[in-house]
């Protein structure tokens, strides 16, 4: 498996989770990484992007609540999710330009 996301789970509204994605790929530090999510019955959507240099941008729906970071030494990208809402419930995937999407991790926000 070249991309493996983890850290998902069940959380109450207002709670937090931190997702991780380990990329077993060469050239990790020189490429961007993305986080996507797909809710049941909906199209996959881009959640956020981090460039090779660490610049980030986010979907409007998560701005101010989610933060992407990366650790190049560990070939890992993180998604810190705060103030979670029920509409954040989805399968979350990471994406690397040389491998595509990895295996997702389920996030469920419910009381």
Characterization of this structure:
0% of the residues lie in helices and 50% in strands. The chain is mainly β and 111 residues long. The mean pLDDT is 94. The protein has strands at residues 3-6, 9-11, 17-23, 33-38, 45-50, 56-58, 66-71, 76-81, 90-96, 100-101, 105-109.
Search tags:
111 residues; mainly beta; 11 strands; 4-stranded antiparallel sheet; single chain
For the terminal residues, how far apart are their CA atoms?
33 Å
Order of H and E elements: EEEEEEEEEEE
**Rg for CA atoms:** 13 Å
What's the total number of strands? Answer: 11
Q: What is the approximate shape?
A: globular
Strand pairing plus helix content: what structural class? Answer: mainly beta
**What percent of residues are in strands?**
over 45%
Largest sheet: 7 strands, mixed
Assign a percent range to the helix content.
under 10%
Number of separate helices: 0
Low-confidence sequence ranges: none
Q: Give the averaged pLDDT, no decimals.
A: 94
Which secondary structure elements does this structure contain, and how are they paired or packed?
Elements: E1 3-6, E2 9-11, E3 17-23, E4 33-38, E5 45-50, E6 56-58, E7 66-71, E8 76-81, E9 90-96, E10 100-101, E11 105-109
Parallel strand pairs: 2-11
Antiparallel strand pairs: 1-3, 3-8, 4-5, 4-9, 5-6, 7-8, 9-10, 9-11
């Amino acid at each position: 498996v070249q991309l493996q996301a983890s850290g998902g789970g069940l959380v109450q509204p207002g709670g937090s989770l931190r997702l991780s994605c380990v990329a077993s790929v060469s050239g990790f530090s020189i490429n961007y990484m993305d986080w996507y999510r797909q809710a049941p019955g909906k199209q996959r959507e881009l959640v956020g992007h981090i460039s090779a240099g660490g610049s980030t941008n986010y979907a409007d729906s998560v701005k101010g609540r989610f933060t992407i970071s990366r650790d190049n030494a560990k070939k890992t990208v993180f998604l810190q999710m705060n103030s979670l809402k029920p509409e954040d419930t989805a399968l979350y995937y990471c994406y690397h330009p040389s491998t595509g999407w990895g295996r997702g991790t389920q996030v469920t926000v419910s009381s």
